[in-house]
Structures are given as C-alpha cells and as structure tokens.
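Dear support,

Our group has been running a series of protein-ligand predictions, and this particular one with fe (ii) ion is the one our PI (initials K.S.) wants archived with full inputs and outputs. We had some confusion internally about which version of the output was final, so please treat the block below as the authoritative record. The input we submitted was:
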Amino acid sequence: MATGSAGAWRFLSASRKESDIQCSDYFFLPRFFFASARARCFAVAVGFGLIFGRFAPEPLELPVDLVERVRLAGILHDVGKIAVPDAVLSKPGKLTDAEWTEMRKHPEVGALIVDGAELKDVAAWVGKHHERPDGKGYPAGLAGEEIPLEARILSVADAYEAMTCDRVYRRALPVKVAREELRKGSGKQFDPRVAEVFLEWLEEQDRRGESVENDHFASLVRGLADRNPV
Ligand SMILES: [Fe+2]
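Confirmed final output from the archive:
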C-alpha cells in the first residue's frame, strides 16, 4: 500500500466519491468523536498505569511522552473508517465476508491518513490496533512483541469502548460481561499486562464511585444514538 498523504488520498478517492457522502455521515461523525474520546480516555489510563506502576507490580521503562502520544493515537485510531461504506458501517446485522473485507481495511487507511499528517509513530500504532498477541488479528497477523505496546493499548481501549456502547447491530454489553470478555481474551486477543492494568483501573474507578461506563461520554453517545437511529 502506498504511504503518505498522496497514498491516503488515492485510496480515499478510489473508495469514496463526493456523491457517496450521505446525510448519515453527519450523524456518524459525532458518534465517532465520542467513541474516540472514550477510547482515548481508556488508553491514557493504561499509559499512566504502565509508566507509574499503578495497578501493576512495577513501572515499565517507557518514554515519558508515551501518554501524550497514546492520547493522540486514541483519538485517531479509527479515522480510517471514513473509507468504509455507510452500508457496512450502519448495517444492523452480521457482516458478510465481503463487508468484513471492507471493514478490515480501516487500520491501514487510518495509518495512511495519520502518516500523511507526519505523525509517523502514531500512524504505525493506528495501522496495528487490530493485531492480536496470538497472531489472529489483522491486517498483518503480527504476534506478541511484534505489535508495538502502544497498539496493544489501543486494542484494549478500543475493544472495551466498543463493548460498552450501543452499536447499530446490538445494545451495549453489561459492564460485568465486557470486563469478563477482557479477562477471557487476555493473552489471546489482548496483551495480558495491558488488560490487567486496565481492569485494575476500572475497579479503582468503581471504588471511587466514578464508574466510567456511566460517565457523560457514554450517556452522550447513547443520546446521539437514540436521536439518530441509523
Ligand atoms: Fe478499529
């Protein structure tokens, strides 16, 4: 795949024409924004947890600007979905194999867009946020440490955000179920250390009475989804 802004523009031009832009784009945008804002919040919590050793046995040797870069990556991780057809994004049922092929392009498209903005490090993580430690992810099927830590953080943040918010094809999972899914996927879909730090952080929020599943982001996303059913 071509790199840089020229590559991103070529890909987007081929996949979306101006005439394809529909009213639903304007409804989707705020929902994507809030979903990204929640993913950013979760990714930053893990970044702090790993750097300062909170919720984990010991701090990791990590660059001091990791949290700031992960914050940016959290916002941008799904930007490639602008190249996925509305019919796929808003489909209320299961995707066909062909539709999954379209959906699975979004990390690479996102990486092209972010790379074009000269955010080289963030672009690499955006392009790998659907890779899995067990090698069963996409687009490259990378495994374990081949996946940058930042991409493993995005993966956990993105998955939890997706599970705990309504989608057009299903309602949000109960919090307990979503957390159990993270536990079950630890070491397979999710980096075990990242998942552990994140789950500890969630429990800390519970103890402080600041459950993130009930925060204003989630209720705003729900409100938008209810007002703009697609
Ligand atoms: Fe994604």
